[in-house]
Amino acid sequence: MSFLTHGFDRPFDAAERPARFSAARKAQLKRVGLQALALLSMGSVLTALIALKTAIYVWHLHA
Known about the structure:
single chain
């Protein structure tokens, strides 16, 4: 770790630092993250289906 970006008053070793988040907070953040990932995945699938339907429509239009 660079001395320019790290404060001298903080320890370098992660084991010496106290935990930043409690176990309940970590579980909540994990749940929110998984829900956001699922939402983005569903949005991607919906976008792909719309693109496919549009491509089929255009293909039939020119046929």
